[in-house]
Amino acid sequence: MRFLIVLLVGLGWALAQRPIDIPFWHTAGPPGQEPLEEMIREFNGRQRDYRIVPSFVGDYREGGLKLLAALRSGGAPALFHAEISFLGRMVQDNVAQPLDEYLGSLPGDFYPGFLETGKLRGRTYGLPIGLSVPVLFYNADQFSSKGLSAPRTWDDVVTAAQRLTTRAAKGYTVSSDIYSFVVLVMSRGGSIVNSQGRPDFANPKVVESLEFLQDMVRKNIAQSRNIAEAQFSVADFLRTKTFMGVAPITLWPLIENRAPIPFRLGVAAVPRVEGGKVPLAGGTLVVLRGASEQQARGAVAFWRFAMEPANIAKWVKATYYMPMRRAAQPLLEDFYKEDPRRRVAFSQVEHADVWLQDPEFTIWYSFLEDALERALKGNANARQVLEEAQRRANSVERR
């Protein structure tokens, strides 16, 4: 009997000491997968309370579809790595847990806007872990041959595109995807949503931005690509069919680590007017409603670990995501000195901001992209197609 009591007490003690498992579905493919999973191994080895159990579930779209299926059938994880524009829908559908009670006080050196990507209705539902900004990629050899400097304004972009365009190549790539368009709108001081976060496609700055792109296409100095042709945009640039284009900074290591490209890659900050912003895109950690309190606490503990300056610096160097905290900057000095282009591109962290959090975004973004394609590929009137997209977006707003 005494042996049995000792055995039961020992078993109970062992179970109490066992770390809480936190199944984690993440969407970080190369080059982010290995550094993320290495960070998880370090976190698991540093403490005994929690064990993050990672599973790669594809890119943001694939991961989102798998999550929706798991929520319907059961088997959803405790922790999910969501694209930040998907967070609003997760909150509206009561899938995400608020995390404020577990966060406590946070360091005061987070860059403005970064933590806001995880907040809705005044509460924190997402813990941002991999946020990027856009950059302007350009063919440095072609710029040098024409005596051009990196564009500082959008007028400079037009001038450069005019001088670079030939019969065989265009100066600039224009894409009909919503992200590329938002880059232009925000950099010019505008927004595609109003102060309540709802679609605002017909406001003057949005209309002017589309007319600006349309004018470049009409002048035959820009190559227009729709969504179906998006994969050709990078190929056009690498094959010197175009000489400039806006894309996420995270594309940079993927370009330079592939087969050698036939020119020097120029990387510049996105041109901005005074007060203009650049949109934050990327991923956030979301604790799902089915997770226990201990799993939620463990998820927050892991995020805090990831936000330690040394871990931020390693993550930035591997992925080119933005440093979330100012305290990480001294640890990145060697990274910037190694390649001065990095300092210019990463300096945009000071001007980065949230671009949308509307739960209905997953529905209405296609209305805007359809309008962009009709204007940029079909030469339709910019104001008219944006007003039509606005009416369609209003019809699906449930808030």
Automatic annotation (TrEMBL):
Residues 372-399 form a coiled coil. It is found in: Cell envelope. It comes from the Bacteria. Keywords: Coiled coil, Signal, Transport. Signal peptide: none annotated. GO terms for cellular component: cell envelope. Belongs to the bacterial solute-binding protein 1 family. This is ABC transporter substrate-binding protein. The lineage of its organism: Bacteria, Thermotogati, Deinococcota, Deinococci, Thermales.
